Input
Amino acid sequence: MKAMRLEDGELHIRDVPVPEPGPEEALVRITSAGVCHSDLHLARGDWAGVPRTGRIGHEAIGVVTALGPGAERLVNAGDRVILGLGGAGGGYWCGACEYCLSGRPRHCARGKGILGTFAEQFAVWAPSLVTLPDSVSDDEASLACGGLTAYGAVKKLLRHQVLPGRPVAVIGAAGGLGHYAVQLATEFGYEVIGVDVGKERLDFVRSLGARLAVDAADAREVVQQETGGVDAALVFSSRIAGFNLGFGLLRPGGLFVAVGLPPTSDGPFSINPFEFFVKDATLVYSAVGTVQDMRELVALAAAGKVESHVSRRAKLSELPSVFDDLEAGRYLGRALLTDLAS
Ligand SMILES: [Zn+2]
Ligand SMILES: [Zn+2]
Output
């Protein structure tokens, strides 16, 4: 079968053996795979210390074609499934440690991620799969990481007592993750202020239901004028400038939810302690979610409450040009690989 491999930062399609599903694993024929900004960061070597060689891709929808021993209690051959936990988790978690039992399997010491969905077939740990109703199409592959991560971030609002009706800024609102967050936070009743750059992207943010869409350059002034500062900022930007902007938009006592992972070369996200004292903010990080979150998200998609915006459908061999477009900010929402065999 064909599979994309990252070799010293270069992409190569390789012919590799079809994986054999191990205990509690299912073999999935990939029908649609999302291209996440994390894949691009990996290929470009943006994160110091993270290798630029190996499998790549971590969002997908597919059909179960074979089962390893024990997987039959979880899925059936022929089921349409979405990989349930994004990149940071989903390959395995122990289910018994402090982190697993408190709903944070991403931190499980024995946990494994999902990596390698840019391939015709992929063997995945079956407890991380969520079966899909027919009403959720293959276009929704990016719910697997982008959607789940956005949903996890929006759920942090309630956990930190930011109530529906309050103003919430989404930084990077037209992107792969932000476009989900705008829809979900609006659906949950928040007054969403979407921040992005350029008219086309802001028009798109408005079309998703945001109360306001504002260019990053004008955001501080507009947000101050309209709200006196937001109750929360969800920062999906992959630049430190977006982090600084998100912190700057908060009203005193606000909630800062970091989601994007800027390149190491962007330097640290730093806060002057006196500004921290004045702002009295709560800072949290949010990555992916749980399998239960994925089930809830699939139900929201089936009910038409959230929808993936697909800017491009490409073949496996076109991944390098998809990366170039993604890097240049040419996509609204997501790009998908829908033909993994050529
Ligand atoms: Zn991702
Ligand atoms: Zn564990």
Observations:
- The mean pLDDT is 95.
- Residues 2-145+288-339 form a domain with the Quinone Oxidoreductase; Chain A, domain 1 fold (CATH 3.90.180.10).
- The pocket of zinc ion (ligand 1) is lined by residues 36, 38, 58-59, 86-87, 145 (CB under 6 Å).
- The chain is about 25% helix and 30% strand.
